[in-house]
Each structure stands twice: as C-alpha cells, then as structure tokens.
Amino acid sequence: MTSHDEFGFTFTGGHQESRWLTESLSEFIEDGYVTDVLFRVKGGKEATVYCCRAAPGADPPLLAAKVFRPRMFRAMRNDALYKEGRGMLDGEGKLVLDGRSRRALAKKTAYGRTLDTASWVRHEYAALTDLAAAGADVPRPLAATANAILMEFVGDKEGAAPTLSSLRLPAEEARRVLDRLLANVETFLSLFRVHADLSAYNVLLWREEVRIIDLPQVVDALRHPGAFDLFRRDLARLGDYFRKQGVPVDDEGLARDLWSRWIG
Fold it and tell me: In the predicted model, is pLDDT for residue 196 greater than 80?
C-alpha cells in the first residue's frame, strides 16, 4: 500500500488521520484526479472535507474530497428517517439485493456497517450528479469510491467559501440569494428530491453565486412518507435566516405552493 510519505501531502494531520486519508484517497490519486491534499476544510460527525490540488491543467484546479468516516464513528441523528423509501447501494452504486448483505445490514456487522457507509456515499454522489446535470447550484461531482466523493471545490487556495449562516447580507442581496435558492428548490422537486437538511449552514456563497452542499440525506419526494414535512422544515429554516436579513418570507405558503405545483 502506498504510504502518506510517498504521496507527500502538503496537509499533515495526525498519524491516524494521515493513514485514513491516504487509504481513502488512494483511488483518486492513482486515477490522476488528485496530486496533493492542501488543507482540511471542515470536520464533521459524518465526514471530513479536504481541499485537494487537481492534476496540472485540470478544470477546476482545486477539488474537494469529502471522506466519510467508518460507520462506527458516524453520528447522524435519526439516520433511519432519511433511509425510508430508498434502497441500499453498494460501493459501486448498485442496489444491494442479496440475502447475505441484507442480513449483515440488519445485524449491523462490520460488513453491514461498511455497506451502510457506502450507501450514504453513493446516494449523495447520485444526487449531486443528477442535480448538477439539471442545472442546480451544487458542487460538480467528479468521482466516488465506497467512502469518499471528489467534487468541485468552492473557494480558492486561501480557504473555502463562507456559509450563508456566517454572513449578514443587505436586504437587496438577500432577496437575490433567496430567489436563487428557491429556484434550486424547484429544480430539486423537478427531480422528485428534497434536500431534507437545507439551511443557511448548508449553503455556500462565493463570488455572488450559491452552492448547496451536504446531500447524503436527500429523500425521494414520492416514496418517502415524511417528505413534505422535511420539505416544510427546509423552507422554514431558510425563512428564519432571510427574515433576519430583512426579507419577508412566508415559508409555509411557499412550501405548500411549490409542493402542489411539482408534486401534487
């Protein structure tokens, strides 16, 4: 196995993190996508995001690697809620149908936990791929493995784009950003998808453009029994933020109108 020293990352974490990162990104490196890891963008309970340098001449020149932690370290609250109405996917994005795998998932064995993590990764990658193709403002995905997604990096070599939650916007700018986010919400619905965790914390603002991030929990608007309630919660969270920026928002009315228009 290739070592961290052989890759010579600019970013140097602790020994355990370096080993985990090297193993997680080895396929991207071997395929020529990534030549260096520059810095850690953010760490979370479910995943850690790193800024990576792409191959010379590649577009974009910087990439974000979102590396999911092993299932034993995951702490997504109520994760069973988001799994309703969708199948389990393996590391290649194929539906898990065989009895052995289903038993492992039910018993939460080590193999079952590995499958569980792979399914979260592949669902997010599929959502990013479909939404980007439909013109939604999400980071453009490039590749995925069983526990990592490689995508467009939003920001520059000095750091990542700020989240909307960290910004105070003039009312006119806030109105423009809200309109753009609502257009994205409609794009999601046109593909029968609900973000299910949308808020100002999951929106980046960079050079007057928005990017919606963190999509592993996206649910199917037709198959998930609680999809509308999750959709209402998304709109309520956006409403809370934009009212503080001086923009009046009837989030309940918007939720019902948009749902009726796209889902019925």
Answer: yes
User: Measured between alpha carbons, how far is 149 from 124 in angstroms, rounded to an integer?
Assistant: 8
DSSP 115-154: HHHHHHHHHHHHHHHHHHHTT-SSPPEEEE-SSEEEEE--
Tell me if 154 sits within 8 A of 162, measured CB to CB.
Answer: no
Sign of CA dihedral 165, 81, 121, 218: negative
Residue-range domains of the chain with CATH:
4-159 (3.30.200.20), 161-262 (1.10.510.10)
pLDDT digits (tens, 9 = 90+) for 152-194: 999 999 999 999 999 999 999 999 999 999 999 999 999 999 9
Long-range contacts of 165-173 (CB under 8 A, 24+ apart): 165/199, 165/200, 165/201, 165/203, 165/241, 167/205, 168/245, 169/245, 170/245, 171/245, 171/246, 171/247
d(CA 131, CA 139): 9
Distance, CA of 252 to chain centre: 25
Contacts of 243 (CB under 8 A, 6+ apart): 249
Q: How many helices (H) and strands (E) does the chain have?
A: 8, 11
What is the C-alpha to C-alpha distance for residues 116 and 209, in angstroms, rounded to an integer? Answer: 33
Return the pLDDT at 3. 46
Closest-CA residue to 89 (of 48, 57, 124):
124
Q: DSSP character for 166? A: G
- The answer to whether 258 and 198 have CB atoms below 8 angstroms apart is no
Do you find a cis peptide bond into 60, omega within 30 degrees of 0?
yes
Coil, helix or strand at residue 41: strand
| Alpha carbon distances (Å) from 217 to 121, 166, 197 | 10, 23, 7
Question: In angstroms, rounded to a whole number, what is the distance separating the alpha carbons of residues 250 and 247?
Answer: 10
